[in-house]
Amino acid sequence: xxxxxxxxxxxxxxxxxxxxxxxxxxxxxxxxxxxxxxxxxxxxxxxxxxxxxxxxxxxxxxxxxxxxxxxxxxxxxxxxxxxxxxxxxxxxxxxxxxxxxxxxxx
Length: 106
What we know:
By secondary structure, the chain is mainly alpha-helical. The chain has three helices and no strands. It starts with a helix and ends in a 13-residue tail after the last helix.
């Protein structure tokens, strides 16, 4: 077993550990944002796994798939960040009504 092969299997172990963690977050995530980030992590793990497989097998069969998955991940993360920021700004624009000492509106 060569050093590259050993490093590849160690990488696959850690990638699978990360994938299981992300799957747990998808199932148990308290918020929709947590689930969306976990899906992005799954896409990154998929791309990294294909890259490790290509390095171990000395091939470039799936390089286009890795590039497309990376572009999809970047676009989805940027879109998610944009809508998260816009939603936070929209929530700050509507102030809550103030209540007086008796509980009624001021």
